[in-house]
Amino acid sequence: TEYFTGHQLLTMKLYDSVFKKINLTNMYILASVTAYLAVVIAACSLNFQRALPLFIITVLAIFVICWDFLIAKYGERIAAFFSPGKSYLEKQWFWLKWVLCAAFIITIICWLIFDTAKQGSRQLISFGGLVMYVLLMFIFSKYPNRVAWRPVFSGIGMQFILGLFVLRTKVGFDVFNWLGIQIQTFLEYSDTGAKFVFGEKYTNHFFAFKVLPIVVFFSTVMSVLYHVGFMQWLIGKVGWIMQIFMGTTPVESLVAAGNIFVGQTESPLLIRPYLPYITKSELHAVMTAGFSTIAGSVLGAYISFGVSASHLLTASVMSAPASLAMSKLFWPETEKPTLTLRSGLQMAKGESKNLLEAASQGASTSIPLVANIAVNLISFLALLAFLDSALSWVGSLFDYPQLNFENICAYVFMPFSFMMGVDWEDSFIVGGLLGYKTFFNEFVAYERLSKLIHNREKGGSMYINGVKQYMTVRSEVIATYALCGFANFGSLGLVIGGLTSIAPSKKKEIAGGALRAMIAGTVACFMTACVAGTVHKFGVPYSQ
């Protein structure tokens, strides 16, 4: 009796200790939330216009928290309530999908007719290019007779909706323009660390001491956000939206969403435990998503070149659904996916134990990335100079000393750039940029594009010795969207090596599908550029 009494007392003390800790934690959370809301109310009372961004963020956060709470507690009841409607739609889906497709196509055609009457015919070229790329991908599809058109049309539809919201509405334009300004301001804080390490004249070596520190800073921030769980939450929500609208599997949707924020070798780590069990089509989609977008860490570097931050952000978001659309068109699903339930997927968590360790790990993780960027640029630019010299020598034998790598790429990619909606006189220049991006990397291409942008902003003669010095704003914008992806031959080896290391059992499938994935990723970027050329109202920031 004494033993059991002592045991019960010990148990009661243990429970009491646990409950005290839980209550203490809840009190801290409640106090923190109360203090935060008090700050928001005080800020709004003093100057509501100045506190508007904080107010909007708070309202969105409250909405999301309430949504997650309702889904977690009443998700099954909500699903049961809507199940009769879902069953009815599934029964009628055979004819309903054709009605929706027809309505979508008729809406696009009518919109193009009225928009062309107001804006001119240049938008029609971009739309024609979009149709051309879809047809080419269908013709060269792995299994043309097995294509599921829902992801294709849904992906293109999502691109148009995002493009119209950002490029044609005042709210969308203001939101992304505000985000771009905030990111630019945020990235400038990396100058403090660069100045301390490299001295007051660090900007004299712009790329090494100004651009590369931004990559380190951004990597640190992403690691911290990953540690607190914000990135996993955000990627999960974006992936869920794409899964619902496009009908893609959870694995494909999560990786496509992840590639908006992280790199092509980091995003597969989100679904690392499931990689050995995915189908060939899903694996192709995972690789395509990596090729068609850029990482948040290098996004800051491109912004520092002088490329529009709002257009880069828009391109990163729009290319995610495009990557899934092109992947499902170029390599349709022929197997039965084993992972179909969103609730069955658990994203990998960070290994750091606290915020300081997460920040340190993020900075350390950026070392190979920074070194990789630096050595690749040194080697690629040196190789490019050698190729230009060799080609010029060959060209001089035939009285054409102007022959160089850019000219060859320009002739190859010129038709593709023109079909995106680039002005004919600029399509040769954009074709050269696409060649740099494909055969070298997007860093080289954006560096060249930034020079063209700076030349236009400075003004001066458009032609010097018959060579065009800058392009129109329309051509610059379309080029910005077309270049916004990792689809190049250097990344091809990176993807094969990275995925093989975390999924050795898929080595043969990875090597066999990587080239097709790179092509699909390239076309996804081209499609994003076509949509931008179709919906962007050049000359004014948004529709009046």
From TrEMBL:
Belongs to the concentrative nucleoside transporter (CNT) (TC 2.A.41) family. It is found in: Cell membrane. Its main location: membrane. InterPro entries: C_nuclsd_transpt, C_nuclsd_transpt_met_bac, CNT_C_dom, CNT_N_dom, Gate_dom. Residues 129-200 form the Concentrative nucleoside transporter N-terminal domain. Residues 311-533 form the Concentrative nucleoside transporter C-terminal domain. NCBIfam families: nupC. The chain crosses the membrane at residues 27-48, 54-72, 93-114, 120-140, 147-167, 206-228, 240-263, 283-305, 369-391, 478-502, 514-535. Residues 208-306 form the Nucleoside transporter/FeoB GTPase Gate domain. One of its GO terms (molecular function) is purine-specific nucleoside:sodium symporter activity. It is a multi-pass membrane protein. It comes from the Eukaryota. This is Sodium/nucleoside cotransporter. One of its GO terms (cellular component) is plasma membrane.
